[in-house]
Design goal:
alpha/beta, Rossmann fold, 27 strands, 15 helices, 6-stranded antiparallel beta barrel, 6-stranded mixed beta sheet, Elongation Factor Tu (Ef-tu), domain 3, 4 domains
Length: 616
């Protein structure tokens, strides 16, 4: 059969080949490539010697052990279409690799040994995983029929099981083809040794299969920011389009902040372009200088999508230690990593009979439905809407191993920052109320929150204030921005989401301290108004005083002082994201106190703050 050397104007079909170990997946692919004349000279010689599996088994360990370990991708074409074939492992130990290979496939080619027991648990698992990944078309190659003397009953038995499985899962199409990878029966041409089979050979079935609709082309724009490209007079957002059309001149919204702007232009390696679709990428230049960081996402300006703080998802568990409710993991979603707590394990799929069952844990290779509570929001779609923004992985924080592949089913953003709590807990009030505590201690708690740009003088003033309060016999403690990043927030970066989480944590700690009757002195850049407002709401909801102090120092003076060398490093290009330089600072519109450090001494500022505390 002549081969076509180009795929121009062809439909491209992506095939994941699954099934149990030793059922002949790699051998069948080798036979398919050989008989379709899709191998090169050295490969033809090797495969012609009977080593069919070596056409895809590229790792030395695979050839030595006779099993597929990694996912092997092969491309070939016929006069009718092009194919990308992913040979996935059949061994249960490497189920995670099967998920990887099937995640971008249009069709699952399941290879089943014609000899009993036929459909194994791992075969059923691969069918189920493919279904969860959105693959609606199943082709079953009943292999090794030569070892059953081309017996029709052996094939019909597998066909019966496949039909029952397809009905339970709701698969749209399941086609069964009897084949012999070893001898080539019904792979590329019809075999005379199976007169009872009236269907087309395997290659013809694959040529006639239609690829699934490319959701990324019809879904709304999704552009996760992967990198901030900075030069002297240039700031671009680099990334890969994960859905829809990215087009210069369109209005977009940056999530999770919600700020809107216009795409001024799109740059590529070949110069400016007018638009780009996934999976291609580019560098976006915005008309407005917004605070955008890695992990943020551009969506249409009128898109109702909201950042999610809680996610219902389907998990394929890949870790050696089981998942249990209450555990915390790192969740990697597009270009963002956040902490996630398993707040509930609702159901676990029983792979053997494809039924649902309840369980208290999720073990290796099991599939379950869970609810995840996120420390910081992500911008996600349901998996059936967008397979990129609807997928994620879970990472063990200690071992850094990938322990689960997840598919988003539903998101919720209704949980307020103030109401966020761990699962299965209630507030324990204790035996003391605040009035009794403060009366017996002779104390009155409050939080005084100093905000301003780096090197504005916050730490100098707050240190002096803490000392003055303690010398007066008042319980006071300084929560300095650098100090809280030793432990409490040591795991956070300096992107917008991490800064927001840092303020949230410090706000809760300050509220506890104020409730105990102490004066919490907070010295934190906290550049964004909405984050500081959250800290205020935490206190106001609890009936605690909260005083916002704006340490107002001109940027030029902050850069001149520069005790940590931050401004010098930012100017030299060795530090990115510095507030006041690359990132903005939102000054409080109506703080309780404003301290202009060029006009007022530290002693005077501390005196005013103490007077204000005394007046509460």
């Amino acid at each position: 059969m002549p081969r076509r050397t180009t795929t121009e104007d062809q439909d491209l079909l992506r095939i994941a080949v699954g099934g149990s170990v030793d059922h002949g997946k790699s051998s069948l692919i080798g036979r398919l490539l050989l008989d379709a004349e899709a191998l090169k000279g050295d490969q033809i010689d090797e495969v012609s010697r009977g080593e069919l599996a070596h056409a895809t088994d590229g790792l030395r360990a695979e050839r030595e052990q006779g099993i597929t370990i990694d996912v092997a991708y092969r491309y070939f074409s016929t006069p009718n279409r092009g194919f990308v074939v992913a040979d996935t492992p059949g061994h249960t130990r490497y189920t995670r690799n099967m998920v990887t290979g099937a995640s971008t496939a249009d069709l699952l080619l399941l290879v089943v040994d014609a000899r009993p027991p036929g459909l194994t648990e791992q075969s059923l698992r691969h069918v189920q995983l493919a279904h969860l990944l959105g693959i609606e078309h199943l082709v079953v190659a009943v292999n090794k029929i030569e070892l059953m003397d081309f017996d029709e009953d052996a094939v019909r038995a597998v066909e019966h099981e496949i039909a029952a499985t397809a009905r339970r899962l709701g698969l749209k199409q399941a086609t069964v083809v009897p084949v012999s990878a070893l001898e080539g029966d019904n792979v590329v041409t019809r075999s005379k040794r199976t007169p009872w089979y009236h269907g087309p050979p395997l290659l013809e079935v694959l040529e006639g299969a239609r690829p699934q609709t490319e959701g990324a082309l019809v879904a709304p724009l999704r552009f996760p920011v992967q990198w901030i490209a900075r030069h002297a007079s240039y700031r671009g957002l680099s990334g890969q389009v994960s859905g829809g059309l990215l087009r210069a001149g369109d209005r977009v919204k940056v999530l999770p902040s919600g700020e809107s702007t216009t795409i001024a232009r799109i740059d590529s390696f070949d110069g400016p372009i007018t638009d780009v679709r996934g999976p291609l990428g580019g560098t976006v230049v915005l008309e407005d200088n917004l605070d955008v960081a890695r992990g943020d996402m551009l969506v249409p300006a009128d898109d109702p999508l909201e950042p999610a703080r809680e996610v219902d998802a389907t998990l394929v568990w890949l870790g050696p230690e089981p998942l249990t409710p209450g555990r915390r993991y790192l969740l990697k979603h597009t270009t963002r990593r956040v902490r996630a707590t398993v707040s509930g394990l609702r159901t676990v799929y029983n792979v053997s009979d494809v039924a649902l069952g309840d369980a208290s844990e999720l073990r290796l290779n099991e599939v379950g439905e869970v609810t995840l509570r996120l420390a910081t929001p992500i911008v996600a779609d349901p998996y059936e809407v967008n397979q990129t923004t609807g997928a994620f992985i879970l990472i063990d924080e200690l071992s850094h191993d990938t322990v689960a592949a997840g598919m988003v089913r539903e998101t919720r953003s209704a949980i307020s920052e103030e109401e966020q709590k761990s699962p299965d807990v209630v507030w324990h009030p204790g035996k003391l109320d605040r009035t009794e505590r403060w009366t017996h201690l002779g104390a009155k708690g409050a939080t005084i929150w100093l905000t301003g740009m780096p090197a504005s003088g916050k730490s100098t003033i707050s240190t002096a204030l803490e000392q003055a309060l303690v010398h007066r016999g008042q319980l006071a403690y300084l929560l300095d921005g650098d100090n809280v990043r030793h432990g409490l927030s040591g795991d956070l970066g300096f992107d917008a989401a991490s800064r927001a989480e840092n303020v949230r944590r410090v706000g809760h700690v300050a509220r506890f301290f104020a409730d105990a009757g102490g004066i919490a002195v907070v010295a934190l850049v906290s550049p964004f108004r909405q984050d500081r407002d959250l800290a205020r709401r935490l206190h106001e909801k609890a009936g605690l005083p909260f005083l916002e102090v704006f340490v107002d120092t001109p940027l030029e003076e902050c850069a001149r002082r520069d005790p940590k060398g931050l401004y010098a490093r930012a100017k030299a290009g060795r530090l990115s994201g510095l507030t006041g330089q690359q990132n903005p600072y939102e000054a409080p519109p109506s703080p309780e106190v404003t301290i202009k450090t060029l006009e007022e001494s530290v002693e005077s500022a501390v005196g005013r703050l103490i007077e204000l505390l005394d007046s509460l």
